């Protein structure tokens, strides 16, 4: 069983728990692209809050913004993260509303979208657009990395408690679900009541020889690479940090982990040029330069995701072997 079934049950549970929550999206009344709204749409008590929206992504964002300002908690299920590129102007307006209202109005809207390669379709359906979304002011950007964490990410991302008391700190939130992760088999039972038991950015593997920063579909190969390096040489224990929240970055925590080893590898899907990994590398160059013992190495996919055919799609993500080679490079530099 993949994570899609428990995610669908969780979406319905979130609506039952808070009457202010509602679902928006193109096909949500028939289950949505990934079936995430299927359980809610089949529940007669919830169906009135499952709202089919116009086909344009900008209409989804504008509609959600209006509902959030009216006191509701909209959850928008999008067919792809690239839809938010079409709605970028509307998303920017939502992100700015807190400041334009003199920090008097919160915008507790959640946008959920699949991102990156994994469905074997190629083209736009394999794009990783987090670098663009992370640059939108006032928008929180989250990205899950492991199948067993997807439900906890969704529950935590949908929690806007305190929005009325702290409107200046609550803006729109985007949760990216990596396509290669949502179709992965779940190997553990998932507790739908469990939120993230940690901060969104967190250490997921201990180590003292190097630090790998990864997120989304790159997290699994990063962990596999760290384990492979330790298996070949027990002296090479590699720390792995799951960014989780891509905007705003938890800079102090990231700098602390980077400085601890002085040897840094950044792994992510999507383009190397202009990717979020470049922003991280700049942060570490600015803040950790006196602690670095090797060049900062970025590992991405072999090809530009937007140009990848379906059968080559997985080449748009970094492989465990490529990350392991980067780890060995910085460790032995």
UniProtKB/TrEMBL annotation:
Keywords: Oxidoreductase. InterPro entries: THDP-binding, Transketo_C/PFOR_II, Transketolase-like_Pyr-bd, Transketolase_C. The keyword Ligase does not apply. The keyword Metal-binding does not apply. Residues 1-185 form the Transketolase-like pyrimidine-binding domain. It comes from the Bacteria. One of its GO terms (molecular function) is branched-chain 2-oxo acid dehydrogenase activity. This is 3-methyl-2-oxobutanoate dehydrogenase (2-methylpropanoyl-transferring). The lineage of its organism: Bacteria, Pseudomonadati, Myxococcota, Polyangia, Nannocystales.
